[in-house]
């Protein structure tokens, strides 16, 4: 284990089982649900460029969310690809895929309904003035556990998410965090190491502000690189600690990319102020210090210098 890294720790009652013990997370059995088995309870929960999410009810299994896509060849391929990725196993901190359904002109992936919304929305709620560092540490511990599982999902394969951000961290009613949105993920092989390998035509998409600097180079855009997830995780830590989402400001996308490639990172001033306000609370001060230290190591300019998620 990298001696520089202090593992993220949370109280025993909310710790997850070891994600590398594969026998505890068997491959997922995906079933097809008939369309008439699913009753729409609420309209659109959310939408993006590729899909719309609705809330549905199944009389035997209760509430689910369903990610609806048009029945074009491309969307069929996307659905099959996402199912293949999520079939590798189940983990407490990875959104569970329950099955799929098909309508006349659309298809859908059935997933667990997360009543707590997404982490970004929680962090930006103005009526919640204080989120303790211990809870922020718990969120990032859950995220790290989920990423660790994805990167070590099976003996010879790993999933690289490629779009980790607070919007893709969903919360249940008990504030357990799960990683969602695998539309840009890729399945690689662990035998080729952290640097990854080109895997043909991969449908990658990134949110630039969370994207690792090496992915801005054209040559590396199709690399299955687990260290890029580690960088994105660091930016998520900063957003969680400061409750401020990263933004371009007055920079163009190209200017932002160049600055990141040169080593610019989110400012640490807000974290310093947070620590100053916690000087009389040793435990919470140490929680912030722990996250800040891991964050700085995870956003290193050199992919090979970033820790493996097993060590976080």
UniProtKB/TrEMBL annotation:
Q: Which GO terms describe its molecular function?
A: ATP binding; protein serine/threonine kinase activity
Q: What's the protein name?
A: Protein kinase domain-containing protein
Claim: Transmembrane is one of the keywords in the record: no
Instruction: Give the similarity note.
Output: Belongs to the protein kinase superfamily.
Q: Which Pfam families match?
A: Pkinase
Instruction: Summarize where ATP binds, as residue positions.
Output: 67
State the residue spans of region: Disordered: 1-22
Keyword terms of this UniProt record: ATP-binding, Kinase, Nucleotide-binding, Serine/threonine-protein kinase, Transferase
Question: In this protein, which residues make up the domain named Protein kinase?
Answer: 39-312
Answer yes or no on keyword Kinase: yes
- Locate the transmembrane regions by residue number: none
């Amino acid at each position: 284990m990298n001696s520089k890294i202090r593992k993220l720790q949370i109280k025993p009652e909310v710790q997850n089982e070891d994600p590398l013990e594969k026998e505890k997370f068997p491959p997922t059995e995906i079933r097809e649900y008939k369309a008439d088995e699913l009753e729409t309870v609420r309209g659109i929960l959310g939408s993006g460029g590729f899909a719309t999410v609705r809330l549905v009810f199944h009389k035997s299994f209760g509430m689910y969310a369903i990610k609806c896509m048009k029945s074009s060849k491309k969307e069929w391929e996307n659905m099959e690809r996402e199912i293949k990725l999520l079939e590798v196993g189940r983990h407490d901190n990875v959104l569970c895929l329950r099955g799929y359904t098909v309508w006349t002109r659309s298809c859908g992936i059935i997933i667990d309904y997360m009543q707590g919304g997404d982490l970004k929305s929680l962090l930006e709620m103005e009526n919640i003035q204080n989120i303790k560092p211990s809870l922020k540490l718990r969120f990032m511990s859950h995220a790290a556990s989920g990423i660790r599982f994805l990167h070590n999902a099976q003996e010879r394969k790993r999933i690289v998410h490629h779009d980790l951000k607070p919007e893709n961290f969903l919360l249940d009613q008990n504030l357990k965090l799960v990683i969602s949105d695998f539309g840009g993920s890729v399945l690689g092989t662990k035998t080729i190491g952290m640097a990854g390998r080109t895997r043909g035509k991969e449908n990658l998409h990134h949110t630039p502000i969370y994207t690792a600097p090496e992915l801005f180079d054209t040559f590396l855009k199709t690399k299955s690189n687990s260290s890029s997830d580690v960088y994105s995780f660091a930016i998520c830590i900063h957003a969680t600690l400061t409750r401020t989402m990263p933004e371009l400001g007055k920079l163009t996308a190209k200017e932002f990319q160049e600055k990141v490639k040169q080593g610019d990172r989110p400012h640490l001033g807000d974290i310093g102020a947070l620590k100053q306000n916690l000087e009389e609370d040793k435990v919470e001060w140490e929680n912030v210090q722990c996250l800040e230290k891991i964050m700085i190591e995870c956003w290193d300019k050199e992919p090979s210098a970033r820790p493996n998620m097993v060590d976080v």
